[in-house]
Amino acid sequence: MTEATVQPRPGGRSARVRAAVHRAVGELLAEEPAEALTIPAIAARAGVHATTVYRRWGSVAQLLADVATSRFSGDVVVPDTGSLVGDLERWTGDVATDLADPDVLALMRATIGSGPEGGSACTADRHAQLGAIIERERARGGKVPSVERAVDGLLGPLYYRAIFSGEPASGEWARGLVAPLLAAV
């Protein structure tokens, strides 16, 4: 007798449930304030039982962090223009465009407001993207700021403007953040 190896099914019910729950979160955030998000409301919208949602995510905060991590992973492509200035200008413009989307803003505000992990879920991939841009320039022999300095000089103003000021950041304004950052290097 041979032993059968158990392989997870790609797609399958688990992926369908995750997609339905993520979609339900987005729809509910577009319709109602974040405070109205509850596991039973999300489950009902997704067409699954609330215990399924509790078992997989445990809380609204954990679910929002998962949705944000999924949403903010890979949504902005790391450019390779051949220069640090070009890469950072294109990247900041793309991030500003993404942050101007009302659905993105609603998800960010809800996720950040849900608990300490929320901010990280909204920014972790952006930090990694900046790190990749900076490391590529370092490998080319260029002078670069630290990732932390780039986060403070680029993401800080972009996220502040998007989340707190209510003023959309134009691509031109965002690209203008690059020169002062690099002048300090």
From TrEMBL:
Gene3D superfamilies the UniProt entry points to: Homeodomain-like, Tetracycline Repressor, domain 2
DNA-binding region(s) in UniProt: 38-57
Pfam families: TetR_C_11 (PF16859), TetR_N (PF00440)
UniProt keyword annotations, A-Z: DNA-binding, Transcription, Transcription regulation
Extent of the signal sequence: none
Domain HTH tetR-type as annotated: residue spans: 15-75
InterPro entries (UniProt xref): Homeodomain-like_sf (IPR009057), HTH-type_TetR-like_transc_reg (IPR050109), HTH_TetR (IPR001647), Tet_transcr_reg_TetR-rel_C_sf (IPR036271), TetR_C (IPR011075)
Protein name: TetR/AcrR family transcriptional regulator
Species name: Streptomyces mirabilis
